[in-house]
Design goal:
This protein is mainly β and 346 residues long. The protein contains 2 helices and 25 strands. A hairpin with a 2-residue loop joins strand 4 and strand 5. The radius of gyration is 19 Å and the shape is globular. The chain starts with 5 loop residues before the first helix and ends in a 6-residue tail after the last strand.
């Protein structure tokens, strides 16, 4: 596995993004056994140690961030292909991956719940866009079945991209997919009886961790879909949208909560977007740190609205995000923010 350092990733994500040809892969193969977490050794022990150190620096850096942390916009570039409503971001080797949902028929709230649902299923198409290191679109992989067409936050373990595709309504159902980051083969891993909006791979125990609608509940599964445990989110600051694993046994999540506005701000029909980043302990289930992130996109969305990924190089944190829909303002832009923090010692 070829690991990218922050300087390389920044160069990749800052390149002019040029439209590329799209192809579509519709059929998902049956799940195949995955031999636990991928800790590839083809780059050598030294490269792995360097990668581990950067992951450790990321966890320490996010733990040290607070509301006074100064985030500076380093770059933004426009994605030049139809991106619809963006959801999750992941990087693996020479490729970038972006999940999105194309809404064909919006859901509609029922006057009262019907069959356990609060709204109609709607119709749509789930996309996983594959881009090369220069941002050219290589492939458009469509994912989902029936009413399950909404991809959420996605995760890379270096070898695979883990993607959840759910119904676009709470208390519903979802499919967990594994996409080979090299061959782009799609494997249907298992199905879940709930809306799952994000998933990460815990490299310590090889289990998957997912969050449901609004990230109010977390699930831990084996790779064949057996539920190991569930727990309620102890925090109500933001709803997590896109997460990533960091050693050892932690995950970083970006997210958003929408609040009604004051009469002067537009009244209850208008909303205020509160964004933030959280560091979650996957063993104790505690929120180790949570800080607001109030930077804004071209369309007026908070930057952590949906796709968010982070990296660290020493005390410098880098955050990438793509909060805007393809049909808004300047379309979907990929933002790069950086900040310097002082992690605690000892």
């Amino acid at each position: 596995m070829k690991h990218l350092n922050v300087r390389t990733l920044t160069a990749v994500l800052s390149a002019a993004l040029i439209a590329g040809g799209a192809a579509t892969a519709n059929a998902a193969e049956p799940a195949r056994a995955v031999a636990g977490p991928d800790i590839s050794q083809d780059s050598g022990a030294r490269a792995h140690a360097d990668h581990q150190a950067k992951d450790d620096a990321l966890a320490r850096g996010v733990a040290a961030a607070d509301r006074n942390t100064k985030w500076t916009l380093a770059n933004k570039v426009k994605l030049r292909f139809p991106t619809y409503h963006t959801e999750g971001l992941a990087l693996a080797g020479d490729r970038m991956f972006l999940s999105a949902v194309q809404i064909i028929e919006p859901t509609k709230k029922y006057p009262s719940p019907q069959g356990g649902y609060d709204r109609t299923p709607g119709k749509g198409i789930g996309h996983l866009f594959v881009m090369d290191r220069k941002g050219n679109l290589q492939k458009d992989i469509t994912l989902g079945e029936g009413d399950m067409y909404h991809p959420g936050g996605i995760e890379s373990d270096g070898k695979n991209i883990w993607v959840d595709v759910a119904q676009y309504r709470p208390n519903s159902s979802a499919i967990i997919y594994r996409v080979d980051a090299t061959t782009l083969q799609v494997h249907k891993q298992f199905q879940v009886k709930d809306h799952i909006g994000g998933v990460v791979l815990d490299k310590v125990n090889g289990h998957l961790v997912g969050n449901n609608w609004g990230s109010r509940r977390f699930y831990e599964w084996t790779l064949d879909g057996r539920t190991v445990t569930t727990w309620d989110n102890p925090d109500h600051f933001i709803d997590y949208q896109d997460c990533q694993y960091v050693p050892d046994g932690k995950m970083i999540c970006g997210g958003i909560t929408e609040f009604p506005q004051t009469p002067a701000g537009g009244g209850s029909g208008a909303t205020y977007e509160l964004g933030g980043i959280g560091l979650v302990d996957l063993r104790s289930h505690a929120i180790l740190n949570e800080v607001p992130f109030q930077q804004w996109s071209s369309a007026g969305h908070v930057i952590t609205r949906n796709p968010v990924k982070m990296a660290a190089d020493g005390n410098r944190l880098t955050l990438w995000a793509a909060p805007d829909n393809g049909d808004e303002a300047n379309g979907t832009e990929l933002f790069t923010y950086q900040a310097t923090v002082t992690p605690a010692t000892g």
